[in-house]
Structure formats: structure tokens, C-alpha cells
Write a structure and sequence with these properties.
223 residues; alpha/beta; 7-stranded mixed sheet; 7 helices; 7 strands; 24% strand; elongated
């Protein structure tokens, strides 16, 4: 049976299939400063302080979403969903009227040479696939980069087919890793300096002391 994919794991796979295998198959984990900063930011976004409603919209954080269609079979948690009142919008369970659905995903740092990272966009596109399935809508999607305090609208309306093909290909490759139950090799040219599990992935040789080895053998009565 195909593996149901957690949306948050897609970026791990895009960064490095080996990292994805270590996390998902071995259940390895380690944190570095980048992981901790991202976790702190998301904890703040998900703590409920961003939830509010006014005359034009209802905003909810840490929203669970899914799409169980066979070609996707995804689930996850969106950082923020904004339900904006619109006459031509979708009916939302628990809310009166109709709404345009807007996804906002938070990221700590914006790229310097482009509007957004493709790996960030794919993660949000997967959220869109789920949001559209849950609320029968055509949701908008944005990335919010904390360091610049700016939203970037993602071009899913204009480039839906491109991102849809990309997502389905990634899901197939991710499921293949899970089905084979084998950690992938490191890709040629893979940059590992920012990876939190690099020491688990390729542990350094342990430094040893001849003196310590001899003393240990004496303690154990071997010499």
C-alpha cells in the first residue's frame, strides 16, 4: 500500500534524499541553529496568538489539512489559513457566508537572489492541493519571510501544471525510498554544511589515544 506522505517531509527530500531516508527510515534527528530558529518561529505562529476575525476575514493558525486522492495521499499542517469574505468564494464549515481561502506559510529567511525558493513553493503547493480538496476551492498561496517581513504570492494559478507534475514526481520518488526501505546514497555535489544530521549521515572518525587504550586494557586485566 502506498505510503501517506507528510507535507513537511517534502522539503527534506528535495534538499537531500539521503537526509529524508535517515529521518523517515532510521528515525534519526539532530538540531542545529537553523532548525532551532525555524522551530521557534513556527511555535510562535502556531500558539494561537495569530487567530482572529473581523468584518472581512477569519484567520486560523496550525490548520490540519489533507488530500486522500490516490495521486496525492498527503496530509499536514498549514501555518496559517485566512478565510477572506468573497461573494464568489467557497462555503466553509462553521462559518457563515462564502470565503476565498488564502494559505500563508512562514519561513525564517528569504533567498537573496530570487523571490522564493522552489522547495518552499513546492511545500506550499502541496498545502494548496490539500486545502482545495478540503474546502472545494481554488486557494491562493503566499510565503511570508520573517527577515524581510514581506509576503510573496506564489504563481500557482499561472503555473499549476508545472508544480503539479513536480509534486507528483517527488511523491513517487519519496514512496520508492520508503518501499525499498534503504537509505539513499549522498548525491554528487550535495551541500551538507547546513544540514543538522550531517554528523549522523557521515560520522567523523573517533579520535583515540594509545595511552587510553593501554590503560583500559590494564583495567580490564588484559595486560
Amino acid at each position: 500500500m502506498p505510503e501517506t506522505v507528510n507535507i513537511r517531509t517534502i522539503q527534506h527530500f528535495m534538499y537531500c534524499p539521503r537526509r529524508y531516508g535517515l529521518l523517515e527510515l532510521n528515525k534519526d534527528w539532530s538540531e542545529n541553529v537553523y532548525v532551532v530558529k525555524a522551530n521557534i518561529m513556527h511555535e510562535h505562529v502556531h500558539d494561537g496568538s495569530h487567530n482572529f476575525s473581523d468584518g472581512t476575514k477569519v484567520v486560523r493558525s496550525a490548520v490540519s489539512i489533507y488530500n486522500d486522492m490516490p495521486e496525492y495521499d498527503l496530509y499536514g499542517v498549514a501555518d496559517c489559513i485566512e478565510f477572506v469574505k468573497a461573494k464568489t468564494g467557497a462555503a466553509i464549515s462553521g462559518l457563515d457566508g462564502k470565503y476565498k481561502v488564502r494559505i500563508v506559510e512562514y519561513k525564517p529567511k528569504a533567498p537573496q537572489d530570487k523571490a522564493f525558493r522552489e522547495s518552499d513553493a513546492i511545500q506550499v503547493f502541496a498545502q494548496k492541493i490539500c486545502a482545495d480538496f478540503v474546502w472545494k476551492c481554488d486557494s491562493e498561496a503566499f510565503l511570508y519571510y520573517s527577515d524581510t517581513r514581506k509576503r510573496v504570492k506564489l504563481p500557482f494559478s499561472e503555473e499549476f501544471d508545472k508544480y503539479d507534475l513536480m509534486l507528483k514526481k517527488l511523491l513517487d520518488e519519496m514512496r520508492e525510498v520508503m518501499e525499498q526501505n534503504k537509505i539513499p546514497p549522498r548525491r554528487r555535489g550535495q551541500k551538507c554544511s547546513g544540514c543538522s544530521v550531517k554528523d549522523i549521515c557521515f560520522p567523523k572518525d573517533k579520535w583515540y589515544s594509545v595511552r587510553e587504550i593501554i590503560m583500559s586494557m590494564k583495567r580490564d586485566g588484559e595486560i
